[in-house]
Specification:
Blueprint (H helix, E strand, L loop, with lengths): L8 H29 L13 H10 L2 H8 L3 H13 L11 H14 L3 H8 L1
Length: 123
C-alpha cells in the first residue's frame, strides 16, 4: 500500500530521520570529548616483531610454521604472490607489499581469528 494511505507516516519518518541525525551528531561529540579528555595516548600494537618481520621469519624458518599459519607451503605462497601480482593486479600499497596483503588474508582465513588478533599479529 502506498504511504499516502497511512496518515502521518511521512511526518513520523521525518521525525525519525531527524532523531537519527541528532543521535549521530551527539555520539560524534561524545567521542570527540573522550578523545580530547584523554591525558595520555598509548599505541595499542607495539610489538617489536612487525607483521613483515613475522612473515619473513615464517618464510625462512621451519617449513611447518608457514603451513600452520598460512595453510600452504613456502613455494606455494611465493608462487601465489607472483601470480596475483602478474595476473590479478595485486600491487604494493603505501605500507603493505603484496606478500603482506596475502599473508594477512591467509592468516585470517586459515586460523579463523578475530580482526583484533590479526591486527595484533600484523601491527
Amino acid at each position: 500500500m502506498p504511504a499516502s494511505q497511512f496518515p502521518g507516516i511521512k511526518e513520523r519518518r521525518r521525525k525519525l530521520r531527524k532523531a537519527a541525525i541528532i543521535a549521530g551528531l551527539l555520539a560524534g561529540l561524545y567521542t570527540v570529548q573522550i578523545v580530547e579528555g584523554a591525558s595520555e595516548v598509548s599505541i595499542q600494537h607495539d610489538s617489536i616483531l612487525t607483521g613483515r618481520a613475522w612473515l619473513k621469519e615464517l618464510l625462512h624458518g621451519n617449513k611447518n610454521r608457514i603451513k600452520n599459519n598460512m595453510g600452504m607451503r613456502k613455494h606455494v605462497f611465493c608462487r601465489l604472490v607472483q601470480v596475483l601480482e602478474e595476473k590479478g593486479g595485486l600491487e604494493s600499497s603505501r605500507k603493505l607489499t603484496p606478500s603482506d596483503q596475502l599473508a594477512i588474508f591467509l592468516y585470517f582465513a586459515v586460523t579463523n581469528v578475530s580482526n583484533r588478533k590479526v591486527a595484533e599479529r600484523f601491527q
